[in-house]
Amino acid sequence: MTDLAHPDRLRKLEAMRAEGVDPYPPRGVASQPIETVLAGAGTPEDPGPGIGQTVTIAGRLLGLRDFGKLIFAPVLDRTGRLQIGLQKTRLGDWWPRRKWLDAADLVGVTGELAFTQKGEPTIWVDEIQLLSKAVAPPPEKWHGLTDVEARYRRRYVDLWASEDVAEVFVKRSKALSTIRQYLDAEGYLEVETPTLHPIMGGAAARPFITHHNALDADFFLRIAPELYLKRLIVGGLERVFEVSRNFRNEGLSTRHNPEFTMLELYEAQADYRRMMEVTETIFERCAIALNGATEIQFRGATFDLKAPFPRKRYTDLFEEHAGCAFDDEVAVRAKAKEIGVGHLDSDYWKVMSDVFDETVEPHLSGPVFVTHYPVQISPLAKQDPDDPRLTERFEVFVSSMELGNAFTELNDPAEQQRRFEEQVASKDPETPGEVDLDYVQALEVGMPPTGGLGIGIDRLVMLLTGQDSIRDVLLFPAMRRVEETSSTEERQPTGA
């Protein structure tokens, strides 16, 4: 046992086993969801068909209020909570065993559904079975895990001990279902592509590297599924999408986790403008599905995700907020020095991008599409026919946070190879170290005009659920490993 196990609870465990009671029985109970039981209760003024009926529920005890010959306790399952009442006169021979019960124990109960004198729906228990003994006590007084580190490390407690936490993840699941339903109706095929890549590619980021023993070769954990999905467009699947786990060996912040979820989709005969329509539809439908309206609250502000979103050009925003043209290297490097980003020997386009991040993004309240990014920072996007310095690319922002990236896909194999080679030759450590010639060969077979889109699911869920940090929408965010938990709150001993 770890030091979280409470001595008093361990003694109860021994007492149960001494009397031949298994504190961890192999079978559960045939139970009803609590929300179903509550729906059948009705109200004290208008009782429902469930009142007076025998019902069975299973869940976690959230506390015990002992009045001597009567105990009240709320029970929580994934659908809600319901009070149970334990009476000495009703439980007879079992009554002495009530002292085995503690808050956080998992139980199955069967009894009559009724209302108390105060009008609270309650199950008067005829039979109670311990389904799993909790030897670690819950957070003190059911205030939840208020220590942030403890919440993330012990999500298995946080989900039921902290208010509204589970609802965030229910909404996350609903958002993914909404996206899948929409894309399915649009004729997209959900596919799965490799997580282990022989060549780093599809985005500019530092990869995680692993080694395949049988092949005696290094592989990269997927940064993005992009190049594989576009191979499928070449193969004639025409509309494909993937909800993928991606990995980037970079820092941690309120917006970044090394392992994250992306939606990527590609559609033949489409362009970046069609991808705007898809993006707006996904955002709008998810907002309605999760919150019942397109207006949402995020970081103290109100945003309306109703389509259409405004469009603003990258170059115009750069001049407005940085005070110079994006391709004026002398002026841009001077601005970078002024605001403290980049280095004299840094790749110019990386410096320019950093200046944009620092000077423009704070002003992107949104929702807004920022369009026509420079070619040098968009190696997979098709050039704008009206200005070859720029591409048919956009990123979508809300509350200064980038949530998606899309473009009309580059399908000229010679130009793609030239850009890959230029990217590999750059000084940027986050660029691929090898040209993906297999992908170039796929383009040589012929890829139709195609629009592609990537949306960060974690950030979208942050937005839709009003969470400030990406860790609050990840069930198990990346954490620094510790040998022993130091939070005193986690160790706080409570009895029953």
Short summary of the structure?
The protein has 496 residues and is of the alpha+beta class. It contains 15 helices and 21 strands. Helix content is 31%, strand content 25%.
Textual characterization of the structure:
The chain is of the alpha+beta class and 496 residues long. It has 2 domains: 7-138, Nucleic acid-binding proteins (OB fold (Dihydrolipoamide Acetyltransferase, E2P)), CATH 2.40.50; 165-310 and 366-473, Bira Bifunctional Protein, Domain 2 (BirA Bifunctional Protein, domain 2, 2-Layer Sandwich). The protein contains 15 helices and 21 strands. It has helices at 7-18, 34-41, 88-91, 148-153, 155-161, 165-185, 226-234, 272-291, 314-322, 329-339, 348-359, 413-425, 437-445, 457-465, 488-491, and strands at residues 54-61, 65-66, 70-77, 80-87, 106-115, 121-132, 189-190, 196-197, 209-212, 217-221, 239-247, 259-268, 295-298, 301-304, 311-313, 368-371, 383-384, 387-391, 393-398, 401-408, 450-456. The strands form 5 sheets. The protein has an 8-stranded mixed β-sheet with strand order 7-11-12-21-20-19-16-15, with helices on both faces. The chain has a 5-stranded mixed barrel with strand order 1-3-4-6-5. It has a 3-stranded antiparallel β-sheet with strand order 8-10-9, with no helix packed on it. Strand 5 and strand 6 (121-132) form a beta hairpin. Helix 12 runs antiparallel to helix 13 (437-445). The longest helix is centred in the middle third of the chain and has 21 residues, at 165-185. 37% of the residues are buried. Residues 484-496 have low confidence and may be disordered.
